[in-house]
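Hi C.,

You asked whether I'd gotten around to modeling the 169-residue construct. I have! Everything is below, sequence then structure, no commentary in between.
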Amino acid sequence: MEMLPKIRRMRLRDGTTLREVAKRTGLSRNTVRSWLRWPEVVEPKCPPHKSARKRDAWAKVLGAMAGDRPPLGQARTARRQRDRPGGPEEIEPEGWRAQFEHNLRYVHLATRIVAPLMVKQGGGSIGNISSIAGPRHLGNDLAAYAAAKAGLQQFSRVTAVRYARRRCA
């Protein structure tokens, strides 16, 4: 359904308040008010994109990243392995691998895709979220988690230094 007839129906026929119409449609109240005020207003139409967009270059890779997630049962097992506390001698190799997979793999893949695009467009920023557990001991035995977060912080530093000359960090 077109947006303008929908707005007019909600406001004029159903008696919905301006605020509620704006909330339901995601438009501002001023936009709704102006669309209702002038009957000759035609809803703006955006032409479809015919040229390739930036996201088209890496949409396939992102789809592959989402597609190689384990099935639900295996994901739960991996999550239990990953989130299990323990020191170096208690943690299983699968838990160690799962922690690094969860915290570092997708950051590497996304950076690998986005960094060349940022260089090509002349600049940009990548923000990685980490934890204080990387550089400090928090009192818990979370060896794999802390190592993965420290790895993420160092990966971010190395990437920033590498791309700093090209105005990308």
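If it helps when you're writing up: DSSP finds seven helices and no strands in the chain.

Thanks,
B.
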